[in-house]
Amino acid sequence: MLEGKKVRLRAYSKDDLKEVLEYINDYEVKKYLMPGIPFPFRIEDEEKWYESNNPMGNGKYSFAIERIEDNKYIGGCGINDVDWKNSVATVGIFLGKPFLNNGYGTEAMELLVGFIFNEMNINKIKLHVFSFNKRAIRSYEKVGFKVEGVLREQIFREGKYHDEIIMGILRREWHKKTAVE
Q1: Using one digit for the tens of pLDDT, what is the confidence trace for 157-176?
Q2: N or C, which terminus of the chain has less Cβ within 10 Å?
Q3: Torsion from C-alpha of 122, 130, 28, 68, nearest 10 degrees
Q4: CB-based contact 17:43 (threshold 8 Å)
Q5: For position 144, which CATH number holds?
Q6: Number of folded domains in the chain?
C-alpha cells in the first residue's frame, strides 16, 4: 500500500497474528507501549482486535509494517484517533525487538505521516511517548515531531515514575521538511 526503501505499510492479515502476539508480549516491547500493567495478550485478544479493524474507517486505521527485502512482518503502526473537527490525528507504532535500530520504525512513521497529511488532509499529528523510550524519541525527532508537552511522573514502570511526553508535527512543518529533502 505505502512503500519506502526498507518497509511497506499494508493491511493486516490473519497470518500476521502469531507474530503480532509474539512481538507485543515481549516485555522489552510492551513496556514502551502500555501505560497500565504490561500483562500478556492472548491469541483471542489479537483475533478480536483483528476482527474489529474496519478498512472503511472510523478514525482508526492499522497498518502492518513489512520489511521489503523478504516481505517479513516486523511490527505495526496506525492512526489511533482522528479529531475531524480540529484536524488532529493521534498515531502510534511498535516493532518487534529483532527489528529495532535499523531505521525501519523511522521510515514507517514517515510513510504514515505522509499518508495522513497528503491523503487525509489532516493539519496536525500527535503522539505520546514515555520519557525512558529514548530510541523512539530520537526517531520521532528525525521525522520532524517536536515536544509539545510533558505529563510529569505519569507512568510507573520498573519501580519508579516517568514522564509521558506529547509530541506533534504540523502539516506545514512536514511539507517544509520534505520539500528540502
Answers
A1: 889 999 999 999 999 999 99
A2: C
A3: 20
A4: yes
A5: 3.40.630.30
A6: 1
- Please give the DSSP secondary-structure letter assigned to residue 25: T
Measured at the CA of 124, the angle between CA 29 and CA 115, to 5 degrees, comes to 70
Residues 6+ apart with CB under 8 A from 152: 163
What digits encode the pLDDT tens for the residues 108-117? 999 999 999 9
Report whether 145 contacts 124 (CB < 8 A). Answer: no
63-66-98 Cα angle (round to 5): 110
Please state, rounded to an integer, the average pLDDT across all residues of the chain.
90
- Provide CB contacts within 8 A for 84, sequence distance 6+: 59
* Structural domain boundaries enclosing 157: 2-180
